[in-house]
Amino acid sequence: MDLSIVASYLLIGISRGMFYFVLAAGLTLILGVLKIINFAHGSLYMLGAFFMYTFIGIAGQGTGAFFLSAVMAAITVGFISFIIEQMLLKHLYGKEHLMQMLLTYSLVLIFGDSVEMIWGTDYYTVAMPKLLSGSYHIFGTYISKFYLLFLISGLLTVVLLWLYMYKTKLGKIARAVATNRSMVEALGINADATFMYAFVIGGVLAGLGGAIASPAVNITSQMGDSIIIKVFLVVIVGGLGNIWGSLIAAIIFGISESFGVLIFPRFEIAFPFAIAAIVLILKPRGILSK
Q1: Ramachandran region of residue 219, left (φ > 0), alpha (ψ -120 to 50) or beta?
Q2: What are the Cα distances from residue 19, in Å, to 8, 62, 140, 229?
Q3: Over the stretch 248-262, which tens digit does the pLDDT of each residue have?
Q4: 4 to each of 11, 136, 262, how far by Cα in Å?
Q5: Single pTM value for the model
Q6: How many angstroms separate the Cα of 169 from the Cα of each of 109, 111, 175, 176, 234?
Q7: Does the pLDDT of residue 1 top 70, yes or no?
């Protein structure tokens, strides 16, 4: 094993971690602001992939069509998230967590059956655009252009979420609501609107994750079931509701998966779970609990 191989797997791991963060950031935002454990987040990721498949079939196979379809898929999932929040979740704020969990889990079943009714039970794929085919030579090693898309998407998510949370009025209100909702409402601020924005942003990020991952995965009605487990692990290890903790945990998970393939390929799937167990033993509330 030389340094070029280590650098290659390190870049791949960070890129994977950034992809996990795109998904985990939305779930963390929903959990931190709304205090809702959203089991349907994986289903929103799945819908993003299916809408990507549909839109790119209309727009064509070019690079521009790929990115336009990804944006349209994310916006469509965001609109669906708006409907879910307004028609269903809005009535469960402040209720028992069990009711919220049952509702979001029922949405998993509803979305799964709906997708099979509309698209069928076959496996679908999205062609890789030419711009993302091949690799770049970076730091003496090669990395796939597609993994760089994950990396760039994650970095953009970090920057945009930071601007939203710390530089906009809505973001500051969201942080205040997450800390003390009753005080915010006593000041005459509509907390329900803040909840709606948070859930829609989370849905957009989930849809975007499904869209950008679509060329690398089989698009099926069960694709959200496997990814949601890793995303929840990232959120728990990072610290429930802490976006920056999720970023750190996502990068750790991505790197552990990457080097797990290199060192112990037969046990690669166990690496993230082992890390989660170690972190939670040492810090039960996660890396950044506050």
Answers
A1: beta
A2: 17, 23, 23, 14
A3: 999 998 888 888 777
A4: 11, 13, 13
A5: 0.91
A6: 36, 34, 10, 11, 28
A7: no
Residue 289 identity: S
Q: What is the pLDDT of residue 185?
A: 84
Taken as a whole, the chain contains a residue count of 290
Report yes or no: 275 and 256 within 8 Å, Cβ to Cβ.
Answer: yes
Tell me which residue has tokens 């349209």: 72
CA distances from 145 to 24, 111, 134 (A): 22, 32, 6
Count CB-CB contacts under 10 A for residue 290: 8
Tracing tokens 């800390």 back to the chain, one arrives at: 179
Domains of the chain, residue spans: 23-222
Token pair, residue 273, equals 């779970």
Closest Cα partner for 153 from 43, 19, 6? 19
Residue given tokens 């070019």 in the structure block:
62
Structure tokens at 263: 């060192």
What pLDDT shows up at residue 247?
Answer: 92
Residue showing tokens 């205040």: 176
Check residue 135 and report its DSSP letter.
Answer: E
